[in-house]
Amino acid sequence: MTTKNRQILLVSRPTGEPTPDNFRMIESELSRPGKGQMLLRSIYLSLDPYMRGRMNAGKSYAPPVEIGQVMEGRAVAEVVESNAPGYQQGDVVFAPMGWQEFAVSDGQGVRKLDPAPRPLSYALGILGMPGMTAYTGLLNIGQPKPGETLVVAAASGAVGSVVGQIGHLKGCRVIGIAGGPDKCLFVKDELGFECLDHREPNLASRLEAACPKGIDIYFENVSGAVFDAVLPLLNNFARIPVCGLIAHYNATELPPGPDRVPLVMHQILVKRLTFRGFIVWDFASQMPQFLAEMSAWLREGRLKYKEDITDGLENAPRELIGLLRGENFGKKIIRVGEEVH
Amino acid sequence: MTTKNRQILLVSRPTGEPTPDNFRMIESELSRPGKGQMLLRSIYLSLDPYMRGRMNAGKSYAPPVEIGQVMEGRAVAEVVESNAPGYQQGDVVFAPMGWQEFAVSDGQGVRKLDPAPRPLSYALGILGMPGMTAYTGLLNIGQPKPGETLVVAAASGAVGSVVGQIGHLKGCRVIGIAGGPDKCLFVKDELGFECLDHREPNLASRLEAACPKGIDIYFENVSGAVFDAVLPLLNNFARIPVCGLIAHYNATELPPGPDRVPLVMHQILVKRLTFRGFIVWDFASQMPQFLAEMSAWLREGRLKYKEDITDGLENAPRELIGLLRGENFGKKIIRVGEEVH
C-alpha cells in the first residue's frame, strides 16, 4: 500500500473569482491511524458552491479554511484501516475528507453509507447534501401546493434539478431557469418541466410570459438578474427559501445604486412575502424521512439525476472555478480513487 | 337634527410629504338611509400611517382613494337611524366611515362594539387594528421566547408600544427606539422597557451596546436608519415581522447606492433569517383570542396605553402630516363628535 498522500491546500485567498494560484497540490507522508482512529481513502469528492465562501476570511455560518490548510470538502470514502469503534475495513462512509486522497479520522462527521445504492457518488448529490437541501428547503419553507407556480434557477444543477422535480411531483407548475440551450433541453426533455435560458435576452419578459398566474414559490439559489426578474412577479403570500446566492459569491463589492432595499422591503410588506434563509443542517432531523422518500422516488423512476464527473484530484481547483462560472452540467464530482467492488 | 355633513376629500396626490393642499373640506347635504341602510355619526376617527399609501395611485394591498373621494378612515360611530337588520339607534359600532361626520352604511365592514370598555377610542387602538397588528405580528411571526432580545421602533406609538409590552410580558429583553427624550422617558417610565433616542447620534453603536446578546426579533415598522442599525446585530434564526416602513412612505425615489440587496440576502442566508410581511387581516380569525387576552391584560393593569387626541375633523389633514413626521405622541385620534353616554 502507498505511503504517500496527495493534498490540495488553500495557499491564498481569492479576490473575486478564484484562480489556480489560490491552491497548491502537495505530496505528504501518509499518517497512520492512532487509538480510536481510522484511515479513510477518498473515492468521490463533491464540489459545491458553498466552498467559495470557505475561501474567504470572516464570519459566515461556518469558519473559513485557514491559509495553508487542506481545502474543505465532503467525500465518499472507504475505510482502509480501523481502530475506531463501529467501523471496519471495507466500510463505505460519507466523511469530511477535504481535498486529499487519504485522511485519518476519529469518526467526527462520518456517517456509514448503505453500499447498495450505486453509484456511490449519489450520496454526495441526490441522496446527500444537495438533495436534502432541495427536499427540506422546498417542503419546509416553500410549502408547495398543487396548482401553484414554482420558479427555480440553476435548474439543471444538483439542487435546482431536485427542487424542480419535487415541485412537479407535488403538482406545481415549474419554471426552471438555466444557462445555455443544452441545459434547458435537458431540463425539458429529461426532468420534465419548463426551462428558460438566462443567457438569452429579455429574461424578465419571457419569465412574465411563462408565469401568467404569477409566482408562488421562488427557490433562491442564484440571486442577481434572476432575482430581479422574479421580484415583480411574486404573488401575495409567496415563499422564498434562500438557499444560495451564487451570482454574488465572487463579488468583491456591492453593485451600483440606487439602493433597492426599500423596494424589496416594500414588496415584502404589501405582498406579505416570506424570505427565509436556511442551510440543510437546520433540518438534520429530517434525514431518515428524506432518504426513505428520495430513494423510493429514484427506484420508481420518478426522479432523474445527472452527474458531471471528472477524474483526478489535481483537477479539483479548475473544476471548482468552472462550477462557479456555471460550466458544469449536473452535480460536479471529482473521482479521486476507484470505487469499491 | 342637522341636515349637513362635513367631509374631507382627497383633491390631489402628494409628491413626497403630503400638504394641506392635497385635502379639501366641504359641506354637503346629509343623505338619508334607504332600505337596509343606517346613518352613522362619527365619534372618533383613527389616523394611521397606512393612510399615506392610500393617497398614492398604483397597486398596494388595498386600492387607492380616488381623487375627489372622501379620504378613507376607520372610526368609532353611533347609529343614529337604522333600517339595517341587526342594528338599532344608539348602537356603538366600528365602521369604515372615512373622513366625515356622517355616513350612510349598508353594514359592510361594520362591527358592533361592546360599549363597556371606555374610552370608546380604545377600539381604534389597543383593542383595535393597531393592537391586533402588534399582537398577531409579534406572536405569529416574531414568536418571542423568554430571554430573547426584541427590538421595536416607534416604541411609544400605537403598534410599537404594544409590541414592546407584550414582548416584555413574554419574558423578552425589550429595546425600544423612539424619537426624542419625552417619548423615551415615557417608554422607560410608563411602558417599562429600555428605549434609545434615534435623534441622538451614533444609534448603531448605542444599539449594539444595548444588545450584548444580539437581536432575536426585530419588529419592523419604520425601516431606514433603524433597520440599518439592526441588520448587523441580528442573531442566527432571527425573525423580522415586516409591518410597516414609515421612513419610506413619503419617499419619491430610492436612496443612492450601492445596491444593498445582495448584502441583505447574504445576511438572510448565512444567519437563516426570516423576513415576513403581514397585515392584520391576514390573522383575522384570531380576533376573539386577541380581544379576550388584551382586555384581560388591560384590566389587570399589565398593559399601558397612551392616546394623542385632537378635537375637530378639520384638523385631520394637519395631524396626519404630523403623524408621518413622528410628531404625535401616542395613538393619534381625531375626536369628530361627542361620546355617547
Structure description:
The structure is a homodimer of 341-residue chains. The first copy, chain A, is an alpha/beta fold. Chain A has 2 domains: 152 residues, Quinone Oxidoreductase, Chain A, domain 1, CATH 3.90.180.10; 154 residues, NAD(P)-binding Rossmann-like Domain (Rossmann fold), CATH 3.40.50. The first copy, chain A, contains 9 helices and 15 strands. In chain A, strands 3, 4, 5, 6, 7, 14 and 15 form a 7-stranded mixed beta sheet that branches. Chain A has a 6-stranded parallel beta sheet with strand order 10-9-8-11-12-13, with helices on both faces. Chain A has a two-stranded antiparallel ribbon with strand order 1-2. Chain A is globular and about 60 Å long. Chain A starts with a strand and ends in a 6-residue tail after the last strand. Strand 13 of chain A pairs antiparallel with strand 13 of chain B, so a sheet runs across the interface.
Task: Chart the SSEs and their pairings.
The structure is a homodimer of 341-residue chains.
Chain A lengths: L3 E7 L12 E7 L8 E9 L3 H5 L20 E8 L9 E4 L6 E4 L5 E2 L16 H14 L6 E5 L6 H10 L3 E6 L2 H11 L2 E4 L5 H8 L4 E5 L5 H6 L3 E9 L18 H10 L3 E4 L9 H13 L7 E5 L4 H9 L6 E5 L6
Parallel strand pairs in A: 8-9, 8-11, 9-10, 11-12, 12-13, 14-15
Antiparallel strand pairs in A: 1-2, 3-4, 3-6, 3-15, 4-5, 5-7
Helix pairs in contact in A: 2-3, 2-8
Secondary structure: helix percent of chain A: 25-40%
Q: Terminal Cα separation of chain A, in Å? A: 18 Å
CATH topology of the largest domain in chain A: Rossmann fold
What is the average of the pLDDT values of chain A?
A: 93
Strand content of chain A: 15-25%
Which structural class is indicated by helix and strand composition of chain A?
alpha/beta
The greatest interface here is:
A-B, 40 and 40 residues
The CATH class assignment of the largest domain in chain A is: Alpha Beta
Largest sheet of chain A: 7 strands, mixed
**Low-confidence regions of chain A:** none
